[in-house]
Amino acid sequence: MTRREGSTGLPIGRFHWRLFALIGAGMFFDGLDSYVAGGVLGSLTQTGWSTLALNAHFISATLSA
After folding, report:
1. 14-58 tens-digit pLDDT
2. Core-most of 9, 48, 59, 61, by most CB within 10 Å?
3. 14-47 vs 52-64: helix axis angle to the nearest 10?
C-alpha cells in the first residue's frame, strides 16, 4: 500500500485531496471565529454591553450557521 492509496487499497485522487483541503479550511475558520468571538464577547460582557445569555445565543448562532 502506498501513500496514494487509502486503507482499502483504493486510489486517492485529486478530488479527495481537494475535499480534504476544503474541509480543513472550513474547520480552521470555524475555530478562528469561535476564538475571536470569545475574546470580543468577554470584553462586551465586562463593559456591560452584553450578557451571558446573549453571548450564548451568539455563539450558538455562529456554530449552527
Report:
1. 999 999 999 999 999 989 988 999 999 999 999 999 999 999 999
2. 59
3. 170
Is the pTM value of this prediction over 0.85? no
Counting runs of H as helices and runs of E as strands, what totals does the chain give?
Answer: 2, 0
- Grid coordinates in use for 58? 451568539
Cα angle vertex 64, ends 43, 49, to 5°? 20
| All cell numbers assigned to 52 | 451571558
Cα–Cα dist 46/13, whole Å: 50
